[in-house]
Design goal:
There is one protein chain. The protein is an alpha/beta fold. It has twelve helices and 15 strands. It folds into two domains: about 5-200 and about 340-360, Vaccinia Virus protein VP39 (Rossmann fold); about 220-325, no CATH class. It has a seven-stranded mixed β-sheet with strand order 3-2-1-4-5-7-6, with helices on both faces. The relative contact order is 0.15.
């Protein structure tokens, strides 16, 4: 690996969604992560990791060593699946960004005023970017953070970066999940542009300008990866009955009678219930809703009858990870890591033009 390919820094690295995306491009990074379970997962998956607090980590030792910066600040404080306490902290976050742009680090003064101290973590990518001046930057968060990403982009634009901000739907890039996330892309070496979608709801027909877009990938299509694994539709229950299928191909039960299978995504957050109702259900011939840390409560039903809980391997596949990814920690912690991660195929799609441009400049 050349020096240019080994200088990617991933803040709030989690279990390795961005890392897997880079790996698909033949590259690697160093991730900074504080959660012990996520660190253990990263190490088991072969991703280089520094266990540390991103907000306290000194940037001076990294100057001149980082060509690419990735960050997915914790989203719970702004997420619809949480209490959205961070929404009231938005003015303080904007102030933090303005202060950093003026060369003033006021995080210590602003943090106690925040309803949720995690809210201010969204300014950390700008702190690192201003200190390290990487060739390119890629940030991801829940859509509610888009105004802060736009603010960050204006600051980066003022020091010579081309920037793009917007919301991407993972289903438009071949993921079996309608996950919408805000992104900020910035580059000092080429125009920053969003990736081109490869899929669309229902697909699009071919025309004189191309082959058209493929239809969204359904959960049924996605749940067929490992030839040696058999999934029992009754899970680990001792009751008789149920079906078994090999995940080397889509389950006959999920394809022959797809609409009889329903994934029940239940969320108990008051904000979620107010916005969407107590349950959000998807049939097997549809993409999943956004996988969250609460997916450990989700379950499959068929013909209105409970079958089994969504398992970790299935949630991982729906999030774009291999079925045998080495998750560490309790079952709840594993689902939290999956829900918080960037889907690897989406990460690869976002990073490909930024990384390839940087490699062309280095060559």
């Amino acid at each position: 690996m050349s020096a240019a390919t080994g200088r990617v820094l991933d803040l709030f690295a989690g279990p390795g969604g961005w890392s897997q995306g880079l790996r698909a491009l033949g590259l690697a990074e160093v991730g900074i992560e504080i959660d012990p379970a996520a660190c253990a997962t990263r190490v088991a998956a072969g991703h280089r990791t520094i266990r540390a607090d991103v907000a306290a980590f000194p940037t001076a030792q990294l100057r001149g060593k980082v060509t690419g910066l990735i960050a997915s600040p914790p989203c719970q404080t702004f997420s619809a699946a949480g209490l959205r306490a961070g929404n009231g902290d938005l003015p303080l976050c904007h102030q933090g960004l303005d202060d950093l742009a003026r060369g003033q680090d006021t995080r210590a003064a602003l943090r106690p005023a925040c309803t949720d101290p995690r809210s201010l973590l969204v300014v950390e990518p700008l702190r690192y970017a201003l200190a390290l001046r990487p060739d390119w930057v890629a940030l991801e968060e829940v859509p509610a953070v888009l105004p802060l990403f736009e603010h960050t982009a204006r600051v980066l634009g003022g020091i010579g970066y081309s920037t793009w901000t917007g919301v991407l739907n993972a289903a438009d890039f071949g993921l079996p999940q309608t996950r919408r996330r805000a992104f900020l892309l910035a580059s000092r070496t080429r125009p920053a542009l969003p990736p081109s979608a490869t899929h669309a709801d229902g697909g699009t027909p071919a025309d004189l300008f191309g082959d058209g877009l493929r239809a969204w990938v359904s959960m049924a299509e996605a749940l067929g990866l490992d030839a040696d694994v058999t999934v029992a539709t009754r899970g680990n229950r001792k009751a008789t009955g149920g079906n078994k299928f090999h995940t080397s191909r889509p389950s006959w039960a999920l394809t022959e009678k797809t609409r009889s299978w329903v994934l029940h995504a239940r969320r108990d957050s008051p904000n979620w219930v107010a916005a969407h109702g107590a349950r959000r259900n998807r049939h097997g011939d549809q993409p999943a809703p956004s996988i969250t840390g609460e997916a450990h409560r989700w379950h499959w039903s068929r013909d209105g009858v409970y079958q089994r809980a969504l398992d970790v391997a299935e949630a991982a596949v729906l999030q774009g990870f291999p079925a045998d990814y080495p998750w560490a920690g309790s079952r709840t912690k594993q689902f939290q890591q999956i829900g918080n991660a960037v889907p690897a195929p989406l990460a690869a799609a976002v990073l490909r033009p930024l990384v390839l441009a940087a490699l062309e400049v280095a060559a």
